[in-house]
């Protein structure tokens, strides 16, 4: 949990609490402060909590008992009250005389206070142990050494450096720095705390990326390349490395995944890239913004698509890739299949790889319109209009979707003519069966 993600109100509250701590209550207050922040983080309420109204119990001033000259105990809550009757006056007079007559009364009060203090300490130790067990098992950002300072006092702050900002925890003290010199390492899911000798440092990871790009150009198998990239991403994550190199790694892996149609890995990379871009780390923001729009079109998630497009800046909309993706959105919304397939044939970057996942669906929609508008359609026209490579590919598509009804079935593909009347109901049926519902693997 990076302190950069803390809301300003939380930082102000922490600074205010630190200023109220004294030597007598510092240990209790820091333990309670850690507990409140950890619980709020676990409940995902850091931004919704009204921190101005949160009060640490250990910082609440405790009313001190005042012992009068006669040895009787007077509490502040009763200072301003007057006896309501003569009987009350008589009873209080008797009580005061009884206390004055007991020379051991003061010592008894001190023993009683000491006993309550011991009970309070025991209960506090129990609660602190319970919280320690709970946080270590549920909070991935805490461990047994996370809040230890030099003096052994639990504290998330850098007490070693008195000039450090008390609002910023020194997470760097607990960051792993790898020592492994291996260039290639297969991906294995972590089941325990990572060890430095198993993690590659930053300069080795840079060399790993260069070697992987060479291997990809040499046509190495994608399964091996993907395992290496996942291992590379894992080493970056455990060392908390988030910079331009991290963005480059995820962008390259995402493009490779698109090229082979691995949408699970692509969506994982896309989700991480969104977080990295939001942190202000530069990268190919417009390129992956266009991919995001095309993926939303593939999933036909209209509400998220409209929200996402509405948040685009004018600078992003002027980018050619983003402008192309918005053109695809407009063509689909208007049913303009001529413009859609023209955009498909001229997609920038790797947009066509994403469009491949929903272009057959749009071909069926276009054929449904054609077969309702015409009685016959030449196969060569279908091939050119719907961006098939050859008339044979167009015929194969129609036969595969149970719409291969031709007036001259024995003629060459260049001369074949589609009979629209029997094909139209078949196209509508296949659309309902195959393309009405969209399933996206690894969607986030």
Structure commentary:
A hairpin with a 5-residue loop joins strand 1 and strand 2. The chain has a two-stranded antiparallel sheet. It has a two-stranded antiparallel sheet with strand order 3-4. The protein has 444 residues and is mostly helical. 21% of the residues are buried. The longest helix is centred in the N-terminal third of the chain and has 34 residues.
By secondary-structure content and strand pairing, the structural class works out as: mainly alpha
User: For the CA atoms, what is the radius of gyration?
Assistant: 35 Å
Low-confidence stretches: 68-90, 93-101, 130-164
Overall 3D shape: elongated
**Between the first and last Cα atoms, what is the distance in angstroms?**
22 Å
Helix-strand pattern, N to C?
HHEEHHHHHHHHHHHHHEHHEH
Number of strands: 4
Strand proportion, as a percent range, falls in under 5%
Q: Would you tell me the overall average pLDDT?
A: 79
- The number of helical segments is 18
Q: Helical proportion?
A: 55-70%
> Largest beta sheet, briefly?
2 strands, antiparallel
Strand numbers in spatial order across the main sheet: 1-2
Please render the helix and strand layout as text.
Elements: H1 8-20, H2 26-42, E1 66-67, E2 73-74, H3 86-101, H4 105-138, H5 202-217, H6 222-238, H7 244-260, H8 263-278, H9 285-299, H10 302-310, H11 314-317, H12 320-334, H13 337-345, H14 351-355, H15 359-373, E3 376-378, H16 379-385, H17 391-400, E4 417-419, H18 420-434
Antiparallel strand pairs: 1-2, 3-4
Helix pairs in contact: 2-4, 5-6, 6-7, 7-8, 9-12, 12-13, 15-18, 16-17
